[in-house]
Design goal:
Layout (H helix, E strand, L loop, with lengths): L3 E4 L3 H12 L4 E4 L11 E5 L2 E4 L10 H6 L9 E3 L4 E4 L5 E4 L3 H6 L3 H25 L11 H19 L3 H12 L2 H6 L5 H12 L11 H7 L4 E2 L2 E2 L3 E3 L4 H13 L3 E3 L4 E7 L2 E7 L4 E3 L2 E4 L3 H8 L7 H8 L8 E7 L18 E4 L3 H14 L1 E10 L14 E10 L9 H19 L7 E7 L1 H8 L35 E3 L13 H14 L7
Parallel strand pairs: 1-2, 1-15, 2-11, 6-17, 15-21
Antiparallel strand pairs: 3-4, 5-10, 6-7, 8-9, 12-13, 13-14, 16-19, 16-20, 17-18, 18-19
């Protein structure tokens, strides 16, 4: 009998398992697929071509977790992009975001070029606030009298003291970033479309929204708190793909005794007399455990694995309306050669960057509205990475792989249409969108893998294709993630916990929910295994 069973071998499940096992607990991880890693995996998608088939770039992975798990010792190597972003605008114009960004922005606005330093300073101050909260368990809103609420009130008071110590300017910005849209926030800083587009993209990536919808300013901030090899705000590539991260985590886990079982889907969390007693796999095997930890999207856990009769009625009702769906269509493409963009045709550092096809905030807004009405944007947003420019292990010599992160598409198509019937049509559109800016791209495609929102849900458990395990909206953040009253990684069933991206601080390959959940579990059950 395991002390603890963890459902889902994604990166947060592995991180949680490591910390629990390090504390002396006997931990078993059950993974539905044949490989651990969840959405952070590297797989062959076309003969001879491998790629990070779901999550595709690294920055948010917490440095404490990298150090604690000795991920570099276990084989992880992360390299920084040679250029951050590249925005092709038309056949001649582009914005390259690199070391000479001020010169680049000045091509469109001298005023914006002089504003950049102040903007970066303001965003970095806000990112520092967020970094300070990442490894904290949010204050939990509890029912009952004052005595039970005292610890949470003290935690809230400490948080309030931290916020009160911030300069008034930062406090005002903090309020704005949570309440406003990315578009409105950026319009207050800049006048030219290209710089607003490249910054504003962070407000809609993985977010089924217009950049002018309230709350997108926070999503922008969520994507800038990371770092690569100690360089804040940088983005990079894990050599060997995102699977290199989770394979290193798995090695760290097995070294300290974690049992990892693949092809072991869980069909039921067993609850007896109000507390967890184990799980049942899809093969009918019952595994006894007094503590069960879920790395799944909360909707999967509470609507498919837990009998709703054991949940508080209001909690169950709110889980039904927990909002998922990131408007994402994911593609992996095998290429015979590098693309040549009309505006910058020769190979260069821009091909190592995040290449964003979305020239303005207005373009992004139309893309969202079109997807809402039609089912997918007929002029879509595409971010393309070509990781083989940094990692020659992914493709045969002289050939390349590309990751296409495409938006917006409706998580569920209108009028009862099925994604299975329209997947190839939309994939063709995404390829054609890149080809408009890089003629010959379509002809260079040797093979492709297209994943609609439905495919992402079927394969990786991303409900509605939601890479964040739930919208990063004000009512689903911090103490309210996933539901107010259960923002401390504890489910409303004794012995059941949550460690996935549906808890604080949300999505991205961070490992932070797994880290924080392990700490809370150990507070409850102790650091030494109990006698059998």
């Amino acid at each position: 009998m395991a002390d603890i069973v963890i459902i889902g071998g994604g990166h947060n499940g592995l991180v949680c398992a490591f910390y629990l096992a390090r504390a002396g607990r006997k931990v078993t991880v059950l993974e539905r697929r044949g490989v651990v890693g969840g959405a952070a995996v590297t797989e062959e998608f076309h003969p001879g071509f491998r790629n990070s088939v779901a999550s595709y770039t690294v920055s948010l992975l917490n440095p404490k977790i990298i150090a604690d798990l000795d991920l570099h010792v276990h084989g992880l190597k992360i390299v920084e992009r040679k250029m951050a972003n590249f925005l092709p605008i038309d056949d001649r114009a582009y914005l390259a975001v690199g070391s000479n960004i001020r010169q680049e922005v000045a091509k469109f606005s001298n005023r914006d070029a002089t504003t950049l330093d102040a903007y970066y300073a303001r965003i970095e101050a806000l990112a520092d606030v967020l970094r300070g909260l990442l490894l904290e368990t949010p204050p939990n809103v509890v029912e009952g009298g004052w005595f039970g609420a005292i610890p949470e009130l003290m935690k809230s008071a400490r948080l309030g003291t931290q916020v009160a110590a911030l300069p008034m300017e930062t406090r005002r910005d903090l309020l704005a970033i949570f309440a406003r849209s990315a578009g409105d926030y950026l319009d207050g800083w800049f006048e030219s479309d290209p710089i607003k587009a490249i910054f504003g993209f962070d407000g809609v990536v993985g977010n089924y929204a217009s950049p002018y919808m309230p709350g997108t300013a926070y999503v922008l901030l969520h994507h800038v708190f990371g770092e690569v090899n100690g360089k804040r705000g940088a983005w990079g590539h894990a050599i060997g793909g995102m699977g290199a991260i989770t394979q290193a985590m798995a090695k760290a886990c097995t070294e300290i005794g974690v049992e990892i079982r693949t092809d072991a889907a869980v069909r039921e969390v067993v609850v007896t007399d109000g507390r967890v007693t184990g799980v049942v796999t899809d093969k009918g095997e019952r595994i006894e455990a007094a503590t069960v930890v879920s790395n799944l999207n909360p909707k999967l856990l509470f609507e498919r694995l837990v009998n709703p009769a054991v949940l508080p009625k209001d909690f169950a009702e709110r889980m039904k309306t927990y909002r998922c769906g990131s408007g994402t269509f994911r593609m992996n493409v095998a290429l015979s050669e590098l693309p040549r963009f009309s505006c910058l045709p020769e190979p260069g550092d821009h091909l190592t960057s995040g290449i964003v096809i979305a020239p303005s905030l207005r373009y992004m807004e139309v893309a969202y509205n079109d997807a809402r009405m039609h089912g997918w944007s007929r002029a879509p947003i595409v971010e393309m990475l070509i990781p083989s420019t940094l990692d020659d292990s992914l493709a045969p010599p002289g050939q390349h792989v590309a990751s296409l992160f495409c938006q917006h598409v409706a998580p569920e198509l209108p009028n009862g249409r099925s994604w299975d019937a329209h997947r190839d049509e939309v994939a063709d559109l995404m390829i054609a969108t890149v080809d408009k800016h890089a003629p010959g791209f379509k002809a260079s495609v040797l093979g492709r893998q297209a994943l609609s929102p439905l495919d992402l849900e079927r394969t990786f458990g991303l409900v509605g294709g939601d890479i964040m395990h739930g919208a990063l909206s004000l009512d689903q953040l911090f103490s309210a993630r996933p539901v107010l009253g259960h923002g401390n990684y504890r489910a409303p069933v004794k012995g059941l916990y949550m460690c996935g991206a549906g808890t604080h601080p949300g999505g991205g390959v961070t490992g932070v929910p797994g880290h924080n959940a392990a700490r809370e579990i150990l507070k409850d059950i102790g650091t030494k295994p109990k006698a059998a």
